[in-house]
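Design a sequence for this backbone.
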């Protein structure tokens, strides 16, 4: 099996969930087959682990309609005798369609969320046009990968896909066991010293890039709805918010320093925060796909409280009691569950969680499905 993968935007260095969802997936995929990544010029080939990266796409937005890319891609596929063409997202669907017709390569569409729904929730009027194009792209695919079962079921129904050609290939983590309790305590001590926090205090964490509207809306809910109720409860706590923010958002967050909010900004090693905090909160109600930070937090054995929409793709039964799901917009109940965590000792995330969300197993499932679909 030889896979040519089209990565249409910058993913290196892979810091954000969407970037990791391609970069780490490709790394593990390359351990099981030959992989060649066709990508934009701004990606650095030195970051590609175990596979070849070719910077042949422009960084210009016009790259998505450049018809000359067809000839370059056809040549690469023929020279390397590629068996599969893997598209990340549906936007290059037209290109995949024509390359498939003229080379006979198997076309694989790797969906990270239902893009039409995501843009609809963000208020874009043209979402239905994208929905038509997204359906066309998936129907053209010989194989379709979806990020969770709900997306797979929606696409099968809405886009009239053959279920036998569709598989759930989830977002993952690249470790397959939880950190030790001693390691978590060391990380908590690092945070206590860094932010001069007295003991005992419950440390809550929210992490996500704040130039993405669903995350920004979640921060507004934390500041305006959740935090005031926590203050009234008399609980000893701090909420740490990590993530790159727009300048005006950054100034707003810093103004809450005296109200139990710590804005840590973009941190180089977010693993210390996942391991060192007591509870990860995920009050996200919009957007599509699986919430990557929720998967990572659970992978570090951190208790999580999430809205229903924020937990899509992760089942309570898979987490050994470490995930609490609250109905969307039920913020009083959300706060009650946050306070209750003081009374509930942490439980270990079960092995079954790591079996499902470990990248090595995810890549193995993807390759096995491609082989069975040939």
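Sequence:
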């Amino acid at each position: 099996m030889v896979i040519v993968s089209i990565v249409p935007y910058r993913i290196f260095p892979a810091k954000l969930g969407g970037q990791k969802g391609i970069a780490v997936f490709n790394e593990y995929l390359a351990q099981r087959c030959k992989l060649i990544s066709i990508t934009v010029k701004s990606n650095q080939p030195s970051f590609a682990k175990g596979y070849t990266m070719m910077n042949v796409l422009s960084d210009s937005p016009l790259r998505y309609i450049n018809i000359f890319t067809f000839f370059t891609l056809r040549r690469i596929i023929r020279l390397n005798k590629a068996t599969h063409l893997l598209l990340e997202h549906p936007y290059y669907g037209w290109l995949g369609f024509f390359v498939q017709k003229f080379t006979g390569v198997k076309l694989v569409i790797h969906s990270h969320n239902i893009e039409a729904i995501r843009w609809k929730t963000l208020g874009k009027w043209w979402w239905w046009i994208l929905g038509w194009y997204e359906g066309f792209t998936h129907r053209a695919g010989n194989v379709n990968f979806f990020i969770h079962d709900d997306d797979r079921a929606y696409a099968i129904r809405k886009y009239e896909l053959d279920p036998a050609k569709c598989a759930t290939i989830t977002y993952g983590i690249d470790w397959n066991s939880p950190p030790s309790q001693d390691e978590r305590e060391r990380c908590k001590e690092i945070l206590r010293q860094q932010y001069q926090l007295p003991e005992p205090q419950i440390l809550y964490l929210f992490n996500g890039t704040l130039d993405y509207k669903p995350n920004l809306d979640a921060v507004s809910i934390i500041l305006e709805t959740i935090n005031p109720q926590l203050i009234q409860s008399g609980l000893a706590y701090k909420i740490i918010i990590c993530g790159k923010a727009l300048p005006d958002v950054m100034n707003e967050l810093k103004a809450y320093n005296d109200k139990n909010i710590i804005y840590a900004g973009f941190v180089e090693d977010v693993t210390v925060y996942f391991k060192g905090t007591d509870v990860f909160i995920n009050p996200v109600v919009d957007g599509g796909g699986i919430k990557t930070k929720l998967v990572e937090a659970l992978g570090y054995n951190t208790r999580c409280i999430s809205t229903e929409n924020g937990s899509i793709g992760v089942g309570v039964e898979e987490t050994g009691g470490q995930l609490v799901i609250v109905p969307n917009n039920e913020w009083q109940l959300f706060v009650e569950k946050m306070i209750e965590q003081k009374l509930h000792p942490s439980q270990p995330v079960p092995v079954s969680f790591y079996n499902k969300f470990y990248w090595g197993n995810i890549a193995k499932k993807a390759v096995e499905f491609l082989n069975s679909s040939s």
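The two ends are 10 Å apart (CA to CA).
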